[in-house]
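Work Package 3 (structural annotation) set out to generate three-dimensional models for the target panel prioritized at the project kickoff. During this period the team completed the workflow that converts sequence records into discrete structure tokens, so that structures can be stored uniformly alongside our sequence database. As a representative example, we reproduce one entry of 279 residues exactly as it appears in the project archive.
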Amino acid sequence: MYTTLITVSQCAAHLDDPDWLILDVRHDLADPPWGRRVYEEAHIPRALFVSLDDDLSALPNGKNGRHPLPPPAQCTERLAHLGVTPGKQIVAYDQGSGMFAARLWWMLRWLGLEDCAVLDGGWAQWQAAKQPVSAAQEKPCPAPFVPLPQNLTVDVGAVLASLSSPTMTLIDARPASRFRGENETLDPVGGHIPGALNRPFTENLNSDGTFKPPAQLRAEFTSLLNGTPASQIVHQCGSGVTACHNMLAMEIAGFPGSRLYPGSWSEWCSDPARPIARG
């Protein structure tokens, strides 16, 4: 089974496999309905659409971040309706970089299901390889899925308490300019959580949108972590989405065991009492 990445050719070889489930997680933060529109125009045969906003997030209330993590029972119900169940190989893909597919990959890990892989290079690589596409209205086959939630998150209180402690190291997946507090277009306040390190998720990728080789990722994260064990690493970004990309990259690099701060910067900056760093 595949638990981190899967290539286009590996996925294409299993298009007719009933034990494989392909999920389309294409999304545009600036135009949320875009993902479903392009899915209806063309998708990988048999793939089902998953909405970042409707299926992989709870409702934001202005204080819990832009893509709050839903309760396990809520997302389990939706995923089970799509046919997610132990024993199936799940393949998640988005338009290319894996930034949205990685959120689904991480959420399945959080719910106790590890047989999920991100399609390396996503829809862009699928098209480049001239693999078959479909516009069919796919029908899900619901399956039983009992979650086994894992301890893979930390909340805002734990992050705040750790600011004066060496037991937690934050890695922020946002672009360097947003980390510095410049060019902030998604959140009302610019800056970063004091003490956080910056690893833009795009640094995990080659120029074609595929992930860098494991050895290269391992060397880069070894330098970034500087001896800090993965168990002390907490990932965050703007809203808990691209942070999952860094978690996936660390898994590929051989550094399992890090955790996610789901609320991320959009939750953190909603309370003016919380400290902010810039530059």
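The chain has two domains: 5-128, 156-268.
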